[in-house]
Amino acid sequence: MSENIPTWGLLAQYEDPHSIYQACEQVRDAGYQQWDACAPFPVHGLDRAMGVKPSRLPWIVLVVGLVGSALGLWLQAWTSGSAYPFITGGKPLFSLPAFVPVWYEMTVLASCLAAFFGNWILNGLPRLHHPAFASRAFERATDDKFFIMIEAADPKFDLAQTEALLKSTGATHVEVLEP
Amino acid sequence: MATANPTTLPDDPKLRGDVVLDEQTGGREPLVRGDYTFHDITERVLAVNEKPIAQTPSPFKFGIALAAAGFAMFGGYVGYLIWEGPGIWGNNTPVAWAWDIVNFVFWVGIGHAGTLISAILYLFRQKWRTSINRYAEAMTIFAVLAAGSCVVLHTGRVWMDYYLFPIPNQMGLWPNFRSPLEWDVFAVNTYLTVSLLFWFTGLVPDFATLRDRATVKWRRLFYGILSLGWRGSMRHWVTYEKAYQILAGFSAPLVLSVHTIVSFDFAVSQLPGWHTTIFPPYFVAGAIFSGFAMVLTLMIPAREWLGLKDLVTVKHIENMNKIILVTGSMVGYAYGMEFFVAAYSGNQYEGFTFINRAGGPYWWAYWIMMTCNVITPQLFWFKKFRTNVKLTFVLSIFVNIGMWFERFVITVTSLHRDALVSSWDYFVPVTEVLFLTGTFGLFFFLFLLFIRFFPVMAMSEVKGVMPQANPHWEGYQHGQHGHGASGAVPAGAVAQKDL
Amino acid sequence: MSHHEIQKPTDITIPDTSLFAKLPVIGGVLAVVGLGATLGSAMGADKARAMFSYLWAFESVLALVLGAFGFLVIDITVRSQWSIVVRRIAETMQATLPFFFVLWLPIALIGMHELYPWTHETDAILERKRWFLSTGFWWGRAIVYFVLWTVISRFLYTSSVKLDGLGDNQAEKDKIIKRTWAVAAPGILIYALTQSFAAVDWMMSLQPHWYSTIYGVYYFSSSILVFFAVTTLVSMALQRAGVLKTAITPEHFHDLGKFTFGFVIFWAYIAFSQFILIWYANIPEETEFYMLRMEGGWQWVSYALPVLHFALPFLYLVSRQVKRARWPLALGCVWLVLMHLLDMYWLILPAYGAHGGGEHHAHLAVSWLDFAALLGMVGAFLAVFGFLLKKNKVIAINDPRLADSLAHENY
Fold first, then answer.
1. Which chains have 3 or more CB–CB distances shorter than 8 Å to chain A?
2. Is A159 contained in some domain?
3. Other CB atoms closer than 10 Å to residue B329's CB: what's the count?
4. Overall number of domains in chain A
5. Complex confidence, ipTM
6. What is the pLDDT of residue B28?
7. Residue C217's domain spans which residues?
């Protein structure tokens, strides 16, 4: 592998959850920051083995949910009580019990939209191209193989040393990814 | 030892999903029968999706042609309906609500099992859901679409339907938020939206699998766009799982609220037979009941034809039968409670309504309902019947019939005896049969397309509950890689945990 | 999840020095004093008030015990694994059910006339209800409930205790466990029917004109909620007393907290469903129930319940951190127990002084008798509960699913 070819990073393949779990612990302990693991399903505990922080998504959902909730109640109070005041069923213009269902649905709708879009935005998706997609081996990442990729942008990245580290963790295949 | 050809059933009968295993007092039965690798799961689940269009199996072509005919007929009927108006139904005072509403409640009820399986079983850590949730979610969405078409059309002047939404307009009118029918608009739309989001979120990793295995360009493009560029990054999985959890957390109460609000359509009135306080939980139980029945009706043939018997085992069917038994009994409790309270109340109108229900002109509808919903599901008290796949199939259809009649009983029999004796009338359907058949056409058409092009099982989730998915699985100490332990049953899943 | 490093707990019997060992004595004294004072007053001029206090205390504590019973039959039927470490607590709670027959007797023998207007009043509506609301039938039904409760609760308790001594005798263990499976499933049906009709008989008929089909479910929601809250508290107290220190982990508290949280929502859902339907339809036979609770000070309780019994605990318990932390979770559970008492108070007490069907005079007035009755009733429960808890192991140590429960992790 020559240093002259532009390198995006290294991709290492593992055969099962057990070996990638141990490999991730070693990569994390070696002090790498800009790296990732790919698996066909969320491997239980792998996020901790990698040292990934918990997601910020719940906070986004909370804020958007509260806004949606307030909007839902305000919409009903304003339209029924002020914009178009009209008595129906002998109920007061502002009848809180009757507003609960729509209030509730608006809260749920806003929260779920936040969870859905927040998920993709935080993950930087959709992103239809990625350097790893150039690898033939990586096609199994959504099937039954497990991968670690370490980016060249990582301050600790050194092609030879990083490759040695990955090989020592039990990788069955290591390749260079181009940008 | 993996099976040589992963698309055929294993030779060992114990590995086939139809053999009933003895229940252990400790541990649990494996969710996936057979000694499979992760790759085998992919192959098996995608076998149907990856067939070239030209090689679509003929029963499938026949099914989709039939459904398409039903759907086309529905289109024609809807045209006729919009042209002539809802007068082409037999609805008339006092039975102003009939099959339109019956079909709506029927379909929206069926639409509840999907989100229930996805959300509530997820929250209760019922891992067996992974084999059936995708299926059930798809069913939910198509059932809600069928339900939606009933309500959209029953307004008569469908081009005025936008007034149901809070859209500013030149007349300064706003919807009446004190009306349960308006609550319904919000509930059903929210439910449809959230179910779609939930379904799609679950599908993304599986679309990525289809993309990565695509051999022709249109597939790579089609699934590539649908998968949003998913690459299985663990950093993504962390947020993804959180999002899934949050969606599940919101969907569970949402599912309850939707049918609760549907029940409010009836129960906020003063009509005996409609106005009773148990309606909300009773409708929810009934919805889950009918939804599970529909999942079984669809899944039993599908697992046979798609060769997925070892992924959807008889244990899954038994579990669903248990839920049918529980929810069927809840519905029975509610029928009983309504009768009891009608008698207990000392209110003659209540009393008359219920006696008329069971013994009046519509006695037959009532007894069909009772037989199919309360009596026959009681067979599921016995393991022998619960694990009998053919019987389950028959009984699941009974439940579908029974639940349609439940809505008929509630809607029509409560209305046909008005408070004014001179307006008593008997309701006769005119062309509604076409309406109901048409919604079935719509439902099955979409459903068969789904089976053909989308993964029917949440592969990433099924893989996640296999014993070797756990990085600390005992098998790894013995040098096995990616396989279950050899033998009839993966050892890690059922072995008694000795202390 | 690696099971190998998890050991079976050894701190499984209550030490003689702990407060739990003294519960029979402490509870007994409380019961004699509290119930003695209440029933003593029931012999005098305050008879009606004393009996209402007594009924409130009885129903509040019975809700806990029935909640334990309901939880247990469901938990066994769904073959739950996570709950094994706390299941013995539920088993012991529901094992006190037979004893509640004794506690129920004063309601039937002393207070029936004061509590239930249908025993002596009459009008056109009550005449049509006579087939159900008659003293003989009412007694008969109660006997049926208690017989069923006694038989099933004793069976479930003794079966579980029997397992403790069986060691590795797998065949015998399987036999016993499969028998409990066979009883628990129909037990759910029996539980659902008996607790609903008991709620109708003893609480709904306090206002005999009023009816609501959801009433049984309402009582269920309250009772299962208080069960989860109290079980959490008992688990924590047991750990302080030096037992199950490692067996019950934050994972189990997290689950107990989730159930508590879930049933806070369920309670609100049921309560709201009943309210909105009656409020919306506005039929006089039904609004009577809420009218009574919207005057004489009761309106403040009616306004407080949705906020204090639902909104606050909801916002508090929604947090994962709270459910996994000892003191914050304990605080939430104590609060919910208090709210349960308020909820039951609101269900029962407004009927006091509202007899006759005509003019209602319901005034919110707390009496010392309420405290006496509650202390006595709780004491009586704790005495039996503490006695049984001390007598046997506090965990089903031989349950085949114990290992899974000990290793339980949330995701």
1. B, C
2. yes
3. 21
4. 2
5. 0.90
6. 67
7. 3-406
pTM confidence score: 0.89
Give the pLDDT band of residue B266 (cuts 50, 70, 90). Answer: very high
Which of the given ranges, B123-127, B453-457, C34-38, has the highest pLDDT on average? Answer: C34-38
Q: Do A40 and B38 touch (CB under 8 A)?
A: yes
A59, B243 Cβ separation under 8 angstroms:
no
Q: What is the mean pLDDT of residues C95-106?
A: 94
- For residue A56, is pLDDT > 80? yes
* Domain co-membership, A64 together with A102: yes
Contacts of C280 in chain A (CB under 8 A): 89, 91, 97-98
Could you tell me if residue C160 is inside a domain?
yes
Mean pLDDT of A59-85: 91
Residue A2 lies in a domain: no
Quick check: B488 pLDDT over 60? no
- Residue numbers of the domain that contains A156: 9-53+131-177
Sequence-separated (6 or more) residues with CB below 8 Å from residue B360: B413, B417
Q: Which residues of A touch B224 (CB under 8 A)?
A: 128
Sign of CA dihedral B463, B468, B473, B476: negative
How sure is the predictor about A3, in pLDDT bands with cuts at 50, 70 and 90? low
Q: Which residues make Cβ contacts (< 8 Å) with residue C314, sequence separation at least 6?
A: C261, C264, C265, C268
Taking CA atoms, what residue in C is nearest to B278? C214
User: How do residues C211-265 score in pLDDT, each as one tens digit?
Assistant: 999 999 999 999 999 999 999 999 999 998 888 888 888 889 999 999 999 999 9
Contact criterion met (CB < 8 Å) for A100 and C276: yes
Q: A143 vs B38: CB contact, 8 Å cut-off?
A: yes
* CA-to-CA dists, residue C185 to C75, C79, C361, angstroms: 10, 11, 45
B241–chain A nearest CA distance, Å: 8
CB-nearest to C213 from B278, B472, B496 is: B278
Portion 262-321 of C in contact with A at CB < 8 A: 272, 275-276, 279-280, 282
pLDDT band, residue B17 (cuts 50/70/90) = low
Q: How far is A97 from chain C (nearest CA, A)?
A: 6
Do A110 and A74 reside in the same domain of the chain? yes
Q: Which of B180, B211, B463 sits opposite A41 (nearest CB)?
A: B463
Give pLDDT, residue C308.
94
Q: Which residues of chain B neighbour A57 with C-beta distances below 8 Å?
A: 239, 242-243, 246
Q: Is residue C411 part of a domain?
A: no
**Chains adjacent to B (≥3 CB pairs closer than 8 angstroms):** A, C
Taking the Cβ of residue C175 and every Cβ of chain B, the question of whether any pair is shorter than 8 Å is answered with no
DSSP per-residue string spanning B426-448:
----SSHHHHHHHHHHHHHHHHH
Q: Is A137 found in the same domain as A118?
A: no
Does the residue A18 lie in any domain? Answer: yes
C282 vs A contacts (CB less than 8 Å): 90
Domain identity same for A135 and A49: yes
Size of interface A-B (CB pairs under 8 A): 225
To the nearest whole Å, the CA of C199 is away from the closest chain B CA by: 13
In a domain, A3, yes or no: no
Q: Which of C8, C91, C27 is nearest to C392 (CA)?
A: C91
> Is the minimum CB–CB distance between B24 and chain C shorter than 8 Å?
yes
Q: What is the DSSP string of B459-491?
A: HHHHHHTSGGGSTT-HHHHTT--SSPPSSSS-H
The Cα of A154 is separated from the nearest Cα of chain B by a number of Å equal to 16
Dist CA B55 CA C20 (whole Å): 72
C336: pLDDT confidence band, cut at 50, 70 and 90? very high
Same domain assignment for residues A37 and A91: no
Q: What is the torsional sign of CA B225, B229, B230, B232?
A: positive
In chain B, residues with a C-beta closer than 8 Å to the C-beta of A99 are 177-178
**Interface contact flag, A98 C276, Cβ < 8 Å:** yes
